[in-house]
Amino acid sequence: MRILGIDPGSRITGYGLIESRRNQLEFIACGTIRTAGEANFSRRLLVIFSDISEVISSYAPEVAAVEEVFVARDPRAALKLGHARGAAVVAALHQGVEVFNYSPRRVKQTVAGYGQADKAQIQYMVRMLLRLNAAPSSDAADALALAICHAHHSFV
Prior knowledge:
By secondary structure, the protein is an alpha/beta fold. It is 48% helix and 24% strand. The protein has one domain (2-153): Ribonuclease H-like superfamily/Ribonuclease H (Nucleotidyltransferase, domain 5, 2-Layer Sandwich), CATH 3.30.420.10. It contains five helices and five strands; from the N terminus they run E-E-E-H-E-H-E-H-H-H. The protein has a five-stranded mixed beta sheet with strand order 3-2-1-4-5. Helix 2 (75-94) links the parallel strand 4 and strand 5 (98-102). The protein is globular, with a radius of gyration of 14 Å.
C-alpha cells in the first residue's frame, strides 16, 4: 500500500510517501510546500491544494494520513491550520484518495513510543525506521511519521 502522510500548515505543509508491504516500510519521497511568500491567505490555500494534487498525481498513493487539528494557545492560528488542513484533505479526496486522521499524540506514540516526543525525536525515529541516510526536515519527518502511523494502525 502506498501511503501519503500530510502535516498541514498555513506556511509550510509537509508531505511524505512510503510503501508498506507486509511489515516492511520503504521510503518513496518527501518534501515541503512553502506558502509563506504568498501574502493572500486564500492564495496560500490554493497553493496547498494544487501542490498536494500534484504530489498525488505524481506518486499515486492509495490512502492519505493527515494530522488532526489541535487547539494551541492561539485560536486564530488553529483556525488557519484548520483551513490548511481542509485544503489538503479536499485535494486528496478530489483525487479519489481516502483520508485517515491521526492525533499528534497517537503519531508520536506510534513512531517514538512516547506521546510527548519532540520534533528531533520524531526526525531520528523516522530516519531509523525508513533507513534514510539523513534526517528529513521536521515538517517532512512529521508527514512521514503520519504515513508510518497509518501503516502500523491499518493492519492492527
